[in-house]
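Recap from last week: sequence in, structure out.
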Amino acid sequence: MQRFPFFLLLSTVMLVAWGALAPRGAAVAHSVEGIDVDTAAAAPDTSVDVIAYFCKRDTTCYTYEHSRIKIKGGDTTVMSSVQEEFYVTVLDSTAQGYRMEFCPTSIVFPDATAGDSIDFSSMLTLLAKNMVGRKIVFTLSPEGKLEHIKNWKALRRELKDGFKHMIDSVFNRLPQLDTVFDRASVYDLVTAQYDSEEDVINSLGELSLLFSCHGLSFPLTADSTIVIDDDPDATMPQQVALNTGILGADDVDPFDEMGEYDYYIDLRTHTDLPPSMISLVLKSTMALLGDSEKGSAEVTKGFDDAVKGMKDLKCNGDGRSVISYSVNGWPKHIVETKQVEVTGTQDGKSLRESRIDLKSIDWSSRSWFNF
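Predicted C-alpha cells:
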C-alpha cells in the first residue's frame, strides 16, 4: 500500500494557502469607508492615492530577490533563491496611459535547494537564461495599473515549454513519482495556470509587485491600524490590517530630492484554512494528478488512509506587503512575505512545518525627467 508522507500533504496545502494569503489590495482600498480615487481627491489629507506620474524616457533600475524557506523543528532550509537585476523604462506617456518596457539584465540562483534532493537551481537556470536581455513591452492605465502585455501569447508558449522541461527533469530524477502521478496530468495542471493574459501578467512577479496598488486609494491611518474582517461564514475567512502614512525623514533615500513627500502602504493578512477545505483540496488534487493506469484505486485508498491518519490537522498563514513609493508613483522598496504553518499528529507523533515565501524589490538607480 502506498504511504503518503506528511511533506506531500503539506506541499499540496501550500498551493491553496499561498493564494488565500494574498493581500487583497483592491478589496481593502474600496471597502474601508468607501474611499476611491475620485472621492479621495476632494479630501487629500485623509487618503493615500497610488498614482503614476511618469514621464517619457524615465528609467528606474531595481534589484529583485525571491526566496522559499522551510522550517521544520529547529532546522531552517533555503529551498530556492533567486536574485535579479532589471529595469523599467517609459517608452511613451499619453493621456490614455503609458507604454513601458521591462527587461531583466541579470538572474542568478545563489542558494537554491540547500539540502534538497532535486537540483531545482539548474532547472530554474534553464528557464531564466532565456529571460535575460528579453525586453517585454506592457501598458499601464493613466493611474499606473498594469493592463496589457504585448505579444503575451508568445511569452506564454515559452513559459509552458520551460515548465514542461522542468517537469520532465523532476520525473526523470525521481522515477518513483511515475507510480503515483500521471506526468501529462501534472503538465496540464501546471501549464493551465498560464492560459490567459492575466495569468501571464501574474507570472511576472516583479511587475505584479511593482504595480499591484496603482490606481487605488487607501485611507491615511497615520500611527493607527485599520482591521477588516471577512464574513466569518466565508470558505477561507481572511483578516486584513492596513497601515499607511508619509515616510519620515530618516526613511528618505539620499538621491530622492522629492523624498519628503514619499509615502508607504502596509497590508497584513491572516487566514485559517478549515480542515474540511484542506481535505477537499487534497483529494481533488490527487484525483487530477493520479494515474488510472498505475493503480488509481490503490493510490486513492492510500491517500484516504493518510488523511484519516492525520489528527488535529491545522493550517494557518500570515502575509504582509510593505510598499514605499516616491511622490511620482515609482515604487522604491517592496517586501512581501507569506508564511504558512501546518500542524498535525501522524502515528502518535506531533508534526509541525512552516514554509516562507519572501520577495523584495529595491530601486538601485534611476534616470528621470529626460525630456
